[in-house]
């Protein structure tokens, strides 16, 4: 990685920390320049617009998510062990990576009703993730760990609902039992899938 690429990655990392707490729309080149101790013109040279900063930050988050969650999940044994690894890695992502919670949830809330490139990018990332969950659940079916008639799309929907429930309970309600409740609900989901 060149010095310029490393600098840009560092900027995007900082942008995601900001976006997780105040949202992508509140993210600005000026604010980021102050936090990174760079000039506005230096930052502008990297991104050219606020929208490009937002889009590249979201893509940076997707690459980070792939490295932190997707790749390690694929290293786990096929079937239920892989589903469990997916859940554990995802829960770590939700609980430990960003100070304000998952940037994909933040982006989903911000852009669900706003047409444009950010909306489309959030949708594409979320669809890719849902497809990955469905595929991993499908391997659990093919390995005989889950029942043959399991609706893997419904499994994906329920697992995503669990994680959204976790986010709501932990971030908004500050429920100290959010992780325990999420783990318990996950075990119930697995039991109903066997």
Automatic annotation (TrEMBL):
InterPro entries, A to Z: Homeodomain-like_sf, HTH_TetR, Tet_transcr_reg_TetR-rel_C_sf, TetR_C
DNA-binding region positions on the chain: 28-47
Domain spans labelled HTH tetR-type: 5-65
KW Transcription (keyword) present: yes
Any one GO molecular function term: DNA binding
One family name in Pfam for this protein: TetR_C_13
Gene3D superfamilies per the UniProt record, alphabetical: Homeodomain-like, Tetracycline Repressor, domain 2
Entry keyword annotation includes Transcription regulation: yes
This protein's UniProt keywords: DNA-binding, Transcription, Transcription regulation
Domain of life: Bacteria
Protein known as: TetR/AcrR family transcriptional regulator
Source organism of the structure: Nocardioides agariphilus
